[in-house]
Amino acid sequence: MKILVTVKRVVDPYAKVKPLADGSGIDTTGVKFDINPFDEIAVEEAVRQKEKNADIEIVAVSIGPAECEEQLRKALAMGADKAIHVETNDPLDSSVVAAELAEIVKQEEPRVIFMGKQATDNDHNQAGQILAAKLDWPQATFASNIEFDGDRVNVTRETDTGEETLSMPLPAIITTDLRLNEPRYIALPGIIKARSKPLEKQERKTDVQPKTTVLKLELPPERPAGRKVESVDELISALKDRGVIE
Amino acid sequence: MSRVLIVCFDRADSLAAIGFGQASGKPFDILQLTQSAAEGTGAEKIYSLGLPTFPPADYLANALSDFAKEYTWIAGVSNMRSKDVLARLAGKLDCAMVTDVLSIESEDTFTRPIVAGAIIATVQVHATPVVLTFRTSGFKAQPTDKASEVIEHKFDWQGVTKRLSENSRGGGRPDLAQAKVVVSGGRPLKDTETFEKVIGGLADKLGGAVGATRAAVDSGIAANELQVGQTGKIVAPDLYIAAGISGSTQHMAGIKDSKVIVAINTDPDAPIFDVADYGLVQDLFEAVPELTDKL
Ligand SMILES: Cc1cc2nc3c(=O)[nH]c(=O)nc-3n(C[C@H](O)[C@H](O)[C@H](O)COP(=O)(O)OP(=O)(O)OC[C@H]3O[C@@H](n4cnc5c(N)ncnc54)[C@H](O)[C@@H]3O)c2cc1C
Q1: Pick from A115, B1, B114, B250: most CB atoms within 10 A?
Q2: pLDDT at B109 over 70
């Protein structure tokens, strides 16, 4: 069984980022990049499934500029068998990404696709669902547990009010949430060792154009500075003055 | 004629839909999946399905793709179920989607937060229809007495996903995303009982909802649906009380629209104090019970 996992290169989720002065993009000076944390969970899950079932082959795919190779190398070091890099500097939105991934799916014929539920740069939460619609495959988003069961997969997913378990026939798309697993730590030597694993470069296969354009980026309005209070009593009277408690 | 469809999964969604419908400046209809829509939404038509529970995303997106075609904007409240279903719908309709809309700038331009709310992006879409999910805090409702035509509606369901089980918690407290008061706790709360006693106790005294950080959820102290932040729920209450929460960007992303933020933390340098309106440097195990007692 082949599992396709997607790997997006994003700005370090723990870095403080700001827009460029002209608002045309994110100021990435001095900022590190990493695998989108949710994609890292997707890779980890694929590797854990493979540890249970040696028949699994894991293909990691990334779409974007030359530097995405770093994130693919990390996915290989975590345990992916092969990586595909669709190298492009084109502007991408979720619909372009889904269109390109659909081409990779034709080529690789995976039984299941693991994707992060959202990328922590654009925070969209769209690509997995759009791809699922394009392929007409069932989907389970916000996954917190995945179990294969013959021709089906059972996924426990988080919901607004709790959780539910879905059973889907394969092929299917699953997007990962934080509780699914905790990705293993990969030290630098591991990444270097993974250099012998195959990483294929490809060109884009569609000419799908983005359906959205980001016109500008700006800082959000700042909250006015607050003050410290010395005691619970002072807090209560301050809140009464603001009219938020009686 | 441009027209908006707002997909409402339950009654709370229909309440949140009012402000967005009004802000759209367009006539709007509601598709009400479960329960009944709130009174006074200002919608022209309410298509009511009266389902006991909503089916999985493949069924819903299939049914909606035909129904929604005639609309200029197809929108839903920015919650997990809308993101699940409406993004799939956007794929089926091969149309643009904007998630987490904060404001409507024009017919084709919207603002939305990115990188955990550190940046606000202005986004233009290039064609209609457009699928949108919106943050409720930006769309306050004006009272209306416009009557809606309620139409019983049925779909022809098609899909392959089976739901094996469903576990809905809730515990009688107000919905986190809509609550006027939210009391949240972080990592130091130790265990479920302590969390429930300390944080739940204050929330109940204030008639509020309970929230948590990812650290609290991850260590099993609080249920996953209580997580507030970039990748959890977005809240915008009149009063947000954060007890034992450091104030990570990811957590702040979910609470910035609160009217008044209170932080209780033993560390005077915790980043939460930079955004809190009122900060109390004290042990939460003393301060929170005292607050609960004195209210
Ligand atoms: C991709 C990604 C997404 C994330 N999404 C979210 C999200 O949606 N929501 C979220 O919350 N986090 C999220 N996080 C995690 C986030 O980065 C932080 O790790 C988390 O918010 C920290 O939770 P905390 O404040 O409870 O814990 P800590 O950071 O450990 O803070 C605990 C605080 O409690 C104080 N304290 C300790 N004891 C006491 C006491 N007795 N009385 C009073 N104060 C005390 C300490 O001084 C400290 O400030 C995400 C992270 C990533 C990478």
Answers
A1: A115
A2: yes
Q: How far apart are CA B12 and CA B32, in angstroms?
A: 11
Judging contacts by C-beta atoms under 8 Å, the chain A residues touching residue B109 are 215
3-state DSSP of chain A: CEEEEECCEEECCCCCCEECCCCCCEECCCCCEEECHHHHHHHHHHHHHHHHCCCCEEEEEEEECCCHHHHHHHHHHHCCCEEEEEECCCCCCHHHHHHHHHHHHHHHCCCEEEEECCCCCCCCCCHHHHHHHHHCCCEEEEEEEEEEECCEEEEEEECCCEEEEEEEECCEEEEECHHHCCCCCCCHHHHHHHHHCCEEEECCCCCCCCCEEEEEEECCCCCCCCEEECCHHHHHHHHHHCCCCC
Kindly report the number of other CB atoms within 10 A of residue B135's CB atom: 21
B198 pLDDT tier (thresholds 50, 70, 90):
very high
With CA atoms as reference, the chain A residue closest to B102 would be: A220
pLDDT tens for each residue of B34-62: 999 999 999 999 999 999 999 999 999 99
The interface pTM score, or ipTM, of the predicted complex is 0.96
Residues of A in contact with B114 (CB under 8 A): 121-123, 217
Q: Is residue B123 scored above 80 in pLDDT?
A: yes
As beta bridge partners, residue B263 has: B242, B279
Residue B259 to residue A118, Cβ atoms within 8 A? no
What are the residue boundaries of the structural domains of chain A, listed by start? 2-213
CB within 8 Å of chain B, chain A residues 91-120: 93-95, 98, 117-118, 120
Closest-CA residue of chain A to B274: A225
Q: Is the peptide bond before B52 cis (omega within 30 degrees of 0)?
A: no
Give distance in angstroms: CA of A170 to centre of ligand 1.
Answer: 38
Q: Which residue has the tokens 């894991």?
A: A58
- Domain at A2-213: CATH architecture: 3-Layer(aba) Sandwich (3.40)
Band the pLDDT of B170: cuts 50, 70, 90. low
Q: Is B143 exposed, middle or buried (0-12, 13-18, 19+ CB in 10 A)?
A: exposed
Q: Is the pLDDT of residue A171 over 80?
A: yes
pLDDT digits (tens, 9 = 90+) for B248-280: 999 999 999 999 999 999 999 999 999 999 999
